[in-house]
């Protein structure tokens, strides 16, 4: 009876963690949608020959498309299950396998997330070689001083930056897809666990 009660507590706690994860993922996915729109605008500006003379818009779209929220795993329960041997208390093997699979998918998201963050650092340095940030402050004040030219008039350097931004957009899309998949898995897992353990009805887990 004690073990059954602990199982019930773990299951309820894990479902709460999943609900936090899915709520967080919804916000992140929405943010990615906005970032991708700004990234498309940046690419359009970089492809415009006028960018060499008027760089404020490109600078603005770069900043607006750059930072993104990381997914922070709500793993308090899964860590308890792993570290205390709590997995053996979960009598429903299908649920256990689903929990392990979800945890594995989170690790995949982390890998892609780290790759995107790494690219942000690299390309952030490249930005400083193109824009006169001291003269441009469009993020907070709109497209002011649009006549500020790029630091370079080398077309190859701008083209290379365009290519990197296009590649980085691909990383955005890839991570957004992984986050979307994780959201769907988490949502299905919540419904599955609640059904298997009759959580919505408050029925005892002593099957």
Question: How is this structure best described in words?
Answer:
The protein is an all-alpha fold and 207 residues long. It has one domain. The chain is built from 6 helices and no strands. It has helices spanning 2-46, 56-66, 76-83, 93-127, 138-141, 155-196. Helix 1 (2-46) runs antiparallel to helix 2 (56-66) and helix 1 packs antiparallel against helix 6 (155-196). The longest helix has 45 residues, at 2-46. It is elongated, with a radius of gyration of 23 Å. The termini are close together. Mean pLDDT is 88; it is low at 202-207.
Describe the structure in brief.
The protein has 6 helices and no strands.
Q: Element order, helices and strands?
A: HHHHHH
**Which class do the helix and strand fractions yield?**
mainly alpha
Number of strands: 0
> What separation lies between the terminal Cα atoms?
11 Å
**Estimated share of beta-strand residues:** under 5%
How many domain units? 1
